[in-house]
Write a structure and sequence with these properties.
This protein is of the alpha/beta class and 625 residues long. It has a 6-stranded parallel beta sheet with strand order 5-4-6-7-9-8, sandwiched between helices. The chain has a 6-stranded parallel beta sheet with strand order 14-13-12-15-16-17, sandwiched between helices. Strand 8, helix 6 and strand 9 form a beta-alpha-beta unit. Helix 10 runs parallel beside helix 13. The chain starts with a strand and ends in a 12-residue tail after the last helix.
Length: 625
């Protein structure tokens, strides 16, 4: 049988009937659609969405922001649900590219439906259409190809059936998920076609829990049994597969300590004696010291980004061997590892059974426990006010950490805050720490907070954001108010790009271009007085409740008031750039230093850079399985 409808109507009807299932839990995969309408999608997709009020349409103010929101929602839902995003052709579409890249980098499913040129080409060139002198089959939507896990252009209605099924295959794949882009030509969206009714029946996509090859599991177990100083790197895959409890049981049974990536932080309670905390360039003393001598590294659901590996300098043992548990083949094979390609939870269960007679020695476990306790004291010191009237960033973090409930969430993405939060935040549950650090996209914070709140409205969501990130994308404060999804933002003003400014000073750049200052007519540089920008008034003008506390006591009082509010609240505070937070052990991050310079400081730093470079490893030692 056939059902006649437009392509746009068919898309929405199809999406409404897509479900996912894992561990006997069944969920509708799409929770609605964000969109900004233009001439490329206003009539066809707009009409289809209006006709289906049970597939909720959400209005937004910025196309990049809505994709951030969808990605944050998907992360909060452990990739079992997501949102759709639609725009017109041209700037509406290309505005989504940055966030599309972030979703793919972070392995999060989002579906993009940008408008495209007329497939008939009768009206070319369209408003907002780029023209090429060598092809008429390219539009701005081709820019999505390198940041999408699946990309297609629907030039004829009959192409839609296979494209939708392929899109769902990728979106629901634990190994292949990321951004999926279906470019929809103006005219094709509105064309009617006789679609097979089977396309619109309820369809359940089962999310498998795959396990690795038995031989590789056995070989991994044999390697671990010979280890003297093994460690675990817990990545986001631990949380996505809901393997937190199994990971803790594995660590306790074997006595192997756990260090956490940004995405994996919270996989184990911060006070657990086997928790070393963050690792790498923003790592704790204990995690980095243990990593330096580790002979076996068990990566669970991590892609080993450069911050986590300290630009491949974290593991200094020349005989270090890697064992990687990951659903993605590419990540499983990194660092010449024994590749255990499979679901984190099920793989850890099987590995636990194979290691029934193994446990690290008491001295090693005691050393890890001491590192955990020592780090807690360092955090306590960083939280303690030095000057109550002029708090530094770590003190704002500490006061918030002490204030919030155990189930509440802190969210951040860019600037100096992520590094401080990675080291200092005391995580008590696996969803309480939400850092977008795969793309570290300035502007993610507000839409990300919205996505998290939409995914779990019962939790308080605290967004920490610097002034530079805030200025990138403040507009969807309006959306949080429009939809009644309250977030609380801690907006810290340090008059510029403090994180990159600190890095610039560290590598000899003297903070060039990182302060928000007037141009100096004498020097012709941006080194005049600070700009008189009032971010508090800006947030207030967008509808938020705003507090401007002075000092740590007033800040704590503002947190109490914010919690009692039922509307998005911004707590605006100021701080100095000096964060008073050092790096620990092998906490290096490679930033190239000019090989030649007139600056003596740069020359000196270049010499140290060359020394640090010698610590980098290729990690290509064969395992000879």
């Amino acid at each position: 049988m056939k059902e006649r409808m437009t392509v746009a109507q068919a898309i929405i009807k199809f999406l409404k009937n897509q479900y996912v299932k894992r561990d006997q839990v069944e969920l509708p995969f799409f929770a609605g659609c964000f969109g900004i309408f233009g001439h490329g999608n206003v009539v066809a997709l707009g009409e289809a969405l209006k006709a289906n009020p049970d597939f909720t349409y959400y209005q937004t103010r910025n196309e990049q922001a809505m994709v951030h929101t969808a990605a944050a929602y998907a992360r909060m839902k452990n990739r079992m649900q997501t949102l759709v995003c639609t725009t017109s052709i041209g700037p509406g579409a290309t505005n989504m590219i940055t966030a599309a890249a972030g979703a793919t980098i972070n392995r999060l499913p989002v579906l993009l439906l940008p408008g495209d040129f007329f497939s008939t080409r009768t009206a070319n060139p369209l408003l907002q259409q780029i023209e090429y002198n060598f092809s008429q089959d390219i539009s701005v939507n081709d820019c999505f190809k390198p940041v999408s896990k699946y990309w297609d252009r629907i030039n004829r209605p009959e192409q839609l059936t296979s494209a939708l099924l392929e899109a769902m295959r990728v979106l629901t794949s634990p190994a292949e998920t990321g951004t999926v882009t279906l470019a929809l030509p103006h005219d094709v969206q509105a064309e009617a076609y006789d679609f097979p009714v089977e396309l619109f029946e309820k369809r359940i996509w089962y999310i498998p829990r795959t396990t690795p090859d038995k031989y590789l599991l056995q070989q991994a177990a044999e390697i671990i049994k010979k280890a003297k100083k093994p460690m675990i790197i817990a990545g986001g895959g631990v949380i996505y597969s809901e393997a937190e409890t199994v990971l803790q049981q594995f660590a306790e049974k074997t006595g192997i300590p756990i260090a956490e990536t940004y995405a994996g932080k919270g996989a184990i309670h911060y006070k657990h004696e086997l928790n070393l905390g963050s690792v790498g360039a923003t790592g704790t003393k204990g995690a980095n010291e243990i990593a330096k001598e580790a002979d076996v590294v068990i990566g669970v659901g991590t892609r080993y980004a450069d911050f986590m590996s300290a630009s491949k300098s974290a593991w200094q043992n020349p005989k270090v061997t890697f064992i990687n548990i990951n659903v993605t083949e590419m990540d499983a094979f990194k660092h010449a590892a024994v590749p255990l390609q499979g679901d984190a939870r099920e793989t850890l269960k099987e590995l636990t059974n194979l290691l029934s007679d193994f446990k690290t020695n008491t001295e090693y476990q005691e050393n890890v426990k001491n590192y955990n306790e020592e780090w807690d004291q360092i955090v306590e010191k960083a939280y303690a006010p030095i000057d109550p009237e002029y708090p530094v960033q770590s003190e704002y973090i500490g006061a918030l950490n002490d204030f919030i409930d155990e189930k509440d969430i802190v969210l951040c993405a860019a600037g100096s805050l992520p590094g401080d939060l990675h080291k200092l935040w005391r995580t008590k549950n696996s969803k309480g720490f939400h850092l977008e650090y795969g793309n570290s996209c300035m502007g993610y914070e507000i839409p990300g907070g919205l996505g998290v709140k939409m995914a779990d409205p019962d939790r308080e969501v605290y967004v920490m954001c610097g002034d530079a990130s805030y200025l990138m994308l403040p507009s969807d404060l309006i959306t949080t108010i429009q939809e009644g999804y309250k977030i609380t933002m801690i907006l810290i003003n340090n008059n510029g790009y403090a994180s990159i400014g600190g890095l610039s000073k560290h590598v000899g750049g003297e903070g060039f271009g990182t302060h928000f200052k007037y141009r100096n007519n004498r020097t012709q540089q941006l080194d005049g007085d600070y700009l008189p920008v009032d971010l508090a008034k800006n947030a207030e003008s967008l509808g938020a409740i705003v507090y401007k506390p002075k000092g740590i006591k007033a800040y704590k009082e503002a947190l109490v008031k914010a919690k009692n509010n039922d509307k998005t609240t911004v707590i605006y505070v100021e701080t100095i750039r000096d964060r008073k937070l050092a790096g620990y052990a092998y906490s290096w991050w490679e930033v190239p230093i000019p090989e030649t310079s007139n600056s003596n400081k740069v020359k000196k730093i270049r010499k140290q850079y060359e020394i640090d470079k010698r610590k980098q490893k290729n990690y290509i030692r064969p395992t000879n399985l």
